[in-house]
Automatic annotation (TrEMBL):
Pfam families: NAD_binding_11, NAD_binding_2. This is 3-hydroxyisobutyrate dehydrogenase. Its EC number is 1.1.1.31. It comes from Rhodococcus daqingensis. GO terms for molecular function: 3-hydroxyisobutyrate dehydrogenase activity. InterPro entries: 6-PGluconate_DH-like_C_sf (IPR008927), 6PGD_dom2 (IPR013328), 6PGDH_NADP-bd (IPR006115), HIBADH (IPR011548), HIBADH-like_NADP-bd (IPR029154), HIBADH-related (IPR015815), NAD(P)-bd_dom_sf (IPR036291). Pathway: Amino-acid degradation.
């Protein structure tokens, strides 16, 4: 299978690596020359233009920051024209369900197939090939995509029609953001009370305070070796990207008349970190507004 992979960032590069390992003929592209060099160094072949990467591709995958980037990469470029006329286009980015439906319709108008297939599991899930995929679109297209998605993930859900994968991802990230905010507040309070971080994780991790954020991304350095907090919040899931996801959730909440007070507060805090020039840090840097490193 010839695969064109667009977006070789924190998530895209390790995901593309799994497709290469599964034996696919993959060519990657990223607007950033640095990302292309990192991909080459990691053994993922790259092209200098998106059109070259997409030439004759049976599958086109995108892993890009926002909807506008997915539109630019798929619709404003020559990618669709140059790929296989029956190509399967899979967007793994987190974008709005509305954008996913619009892009899907534009792809379908060219005779090609489109799935929204956002992921959960973070950069460690991408590296370990243990991501959860939540897919929107035709079930037959999901079945065609299954071998590829299973090479990158451990769990695969059909959420429903086009855009449903994005809706599922959006509500997941609402919960993740608030779990992280509550973990940050609890972690700082535990420290001030003299409780060791590992003790908090050991107890809450098997009790009613459990969450993915607690066990995998505990925001105190050294508590979880693989957590971004143990490497000065580098890599991971950027504050700007979580702010984007909460923006999507708040827009949807407004449309549906939902009181999303806690979501709005965490979004405000992420905005504060961005104002402080900390937008590229992992979102567990929310702890810096709790412990006073940055004024809330
Ligand atoms: P990232 O910023 O590390 O990587 C995005 C890459 O896309 C960058 O290298 C950038 O240069 C490239 N890019 C932007 N526009 C492009 C274009 N038009 N053509 C080609 N390349 C382009 O972001 P990431 O952390 O890999 O996240 C990607 C997506 O996955 C986002 O939608 C994010 O919300 C979602 N996501 C991230 C995580 C995580 O833990 N990082 C987890 C789940 C989902």
């Amino acid at each position: 299978m010839k695969v064109c992979w667009i977006g070789l960032g924190n998530m895209g590069l390790p995901m593309a690596g799994h497709l290469r390992d599964a034996g696919h003929d993959i060519v990657g592209f990223d607007l950033s020359p640095g990302a292309r060099s990192a991909a080459s160094a990691a053994g993922v072949p790259t092209a200098d233009s998106v059109e070259t990467a997409a030439d004759g591709a049976d599958v086109v995958c995108t892993m890009l920051p926002k909807g506008e980037h997915v539109r630019a990469a798929l619709l404003d470029s020559g990618v669709l024209d140059i790929s296989n006329p029956e190509a399967l286009v899979i967007d793994c980015s987190t974008i709005s369900a509305t954008d996913a439906r619009d892009i899907g319709s534009a792809v379908a108008a060219t005779g090609r197939r489109f799935l929204d297939a956002p992921v959960s599991g973070g950069t460690t899930g991408a590296q370990n090939g243990t991501l959860t995929f939540m897919v929107g679109g035709a079930r037959a297209d999901l079945e065609a995509a299954r071998p590829l998605l299973e090479a990158m993930g451990a769990r695969l859900f059909h959420a429903g029609e086009l855009g449903a994968g994005q809706s599922a991802k959006m509500v997941n990230n609402m919960m993740l953001a608030m779990n992280m905010q509550s973990t940050c507040e609890a972690a700082v309070l535990a420290q001030r009370l003299g409780i060791d971080p590992q003790t908090v994780i050991d107890i809450a991790g098997v009790s009613t305070g459990d969450s993915w954020a607690l066990r995998n991304y505990y925001p105190v350095a050294g508590a979880v070796d693989a957590a971004p907090s143990s490497r000065d919040f580098a890599g991971g899931f950027a504050v700007t990207l979580m702010r984007k996801d909460l923006g999507l959730a708040l827009d949807a909440a407004a449309v549906h008349g939902i009181d999303a007070t806690a979501t709005a507060e965490v979004a405000r805090r992420l905005e504060r970190l961005i104002d402080e020039g900390r937008g590229s840090l992992d979102f567990s840097a929310l702890i810096q507004l709790v412990d006073g490193t940055v004024g809330a």
